[in-house]
Amino acid sequence: MALAKRIIPCLDVENGRVVKGVQFLDIRDAGDPVEVAKRYNEQGADEITFLDITATHEGRDTMVHTVEKMASEVFIPLTVGGGIRSCEDIRTMLNAGADKVSINSAAIYNPDFVREAAERFGSQCIVVAIDAKQVSAAGAEKRWEIFTHGGRKSTGIDALQWAIKMAEYGAGEILLTSMDQDGVKNGYDLGVTKAISDAVNIPIIASGGVGNLQHLVDGVKLGGADAVLAASIFHFGEYSIEQAKEFMRQQGIEVR
Amino acid sequence: MSTVAVIDYGMGNLHSVAKALEHVQPNVKVLVTADPQIIADADRVILPGVGAIRDCVAQMLAQGVDVEVADTLRSGKPFLGICVGYQALMDSSEENGGSQCLGVYPGEVKQFAQGMVEDGGRLKVPHMGWNRVSQTIDHPLWQGIADNSRFYFVHSYYVAAKNTAQVAGTCHYGIDFDVALSDKNGFCVQFHPEKSHTAGLQLLTNFLNWDGKL
After folding, report:
1. Which of A93, B23, B135, B137 is the most exposed place for a label (fewest CB within 10 A)?
2. The whole model's pTM is what?
3. Collapsing DSSP states into helix, strand and coil, what is residue A181?
4. pLDDT tens across A148-177, in order?
5. Distance, CA of B179 to CA of B134 (rounded, Å)
C-alpha cells in the first residue's frame, strides 16, 4: 500500500501556550505553539493537531490568531479542535488557515451538527473526536462509553455505536482518545482502537497514552489506526518525529 | 510585480494557498478575489477548492467562475486547479447524488469504492494522507520534484480523465487514478500542494515561474 501511516504531534493549547497534562490534570508548559509546530514541521510531521483547551473568550481570540500565524509558516495540514460548536466556528477556523476541525461535545449535544457541517464544508474537513473510557467489568465483554468534561462525565453513549453513527453522519475521520490511557504512557487502548477501526470505513487517529515508539507501532499494527497521535513524547524531547518514523519504518510500516 | 489571482467563490480555506504562494515567492502579489476584473488582469490564476462539489459548482456558476476559467485558459496565462478546483472542471461527478460540473476537460469524477482491500489491509475513504504521485509526462510544474514524491491528499472522489493525453500524473489507492492533468496553459492537481511541504512548495514555485508554455 502506498499511502503512508501518519504521525501527528498534538498541541494542547491554553491561552496561547502549549501545555500537557496527565489525564487532563497536572499541566506543564511546553512552549509557544507556532515555534513548536515549526519544529515538528521541520522534523517531518505529517500533520499537526491543535486542541484549544482554553475556556475564556480572550483565549479563543488568541487561538484564531495562533492558527493564522501557524498556517503562514507551516505547510502541512492543521486540525483545530476545542470549542467548535457551530458552522460559524468552523468557518472562522478554516478561514484562519485550519484544514480540518475536530468536533467533540457539540456532536454529542447535537449529532445533526456533524451532518450539517459535513454537507456544508465537506467530510474531508470534519473530524469527530471521541473520548472513550472502558466501562465493562473485568472479565466481561469489553465496552467503552463516551465521556465529556475531560473524562469526568459519562454520557452513557456506547463508543462503538457512536463512531458508526458519526461516520454515517459524514465525519471524515475519527480522533479516538482513550481517557484511561491519556498521559499515563502505557500505550494506546488497542482494544477500543481496533474495535472502532474495524467498524467504520473512515480513517482513525489513535490517541492517548503513548510513552515510547513501540506504542506507535502497536497503534498501527494491533490497533488498526491510520494515524498515530502523540504529545508529550515529542514535546519534552524524548523522541523526535524522525526517530519515530525510522522506528516505524524498521517495523515494516510505510511512512513518509 | 507579478500577480496571482486565487478565485474566491465563498467556500472553504482559500487562504492556505495564498499563504503558501507568499511564502515561496515573497515578491509576488497574491489576490484572493471574486472580482472578474482582477482575475482578468492577473498574470496567473488559481482555482482552489475545498468542499462539497454541488455547492462549489453552484457557487462557481452563480459567480461566473466558469467564464473566468475559460477566458484564462484561452488567454494562455498559467492556470492551476487544485482538488475540487480540478474536479469541478470535469464533465460530471458522482458526489451529492450526481452533479454536473463545468465540462472544461472530458472525464468523470468517481467515488472510491467502499471496502477496498490491499495487501491485507482495508483502504479507508476518504483517501487521506501522503501518497506517491507518479509523473506520467515531463512538465515544467514537475521540475525539481522527484518522481513518486509524496503529496498530501484528502478526498473521497477521484478523477477519471477521458483524454489520456491530458494525464500528467497518477496515484494508486486500490486503483490507479488521475491526480494531475495538463492541457496547454492549464494544470490541475488532486492533492494539496499548499499542504505538501517541500514537494508541494516546489510545485507552487514552479507554477509562479511558469510562462504557461509546454
Report:
1. B137
2. 0.94
3. coil
4. 877 788 899 999 999 999 999 999 999 999
5. 9
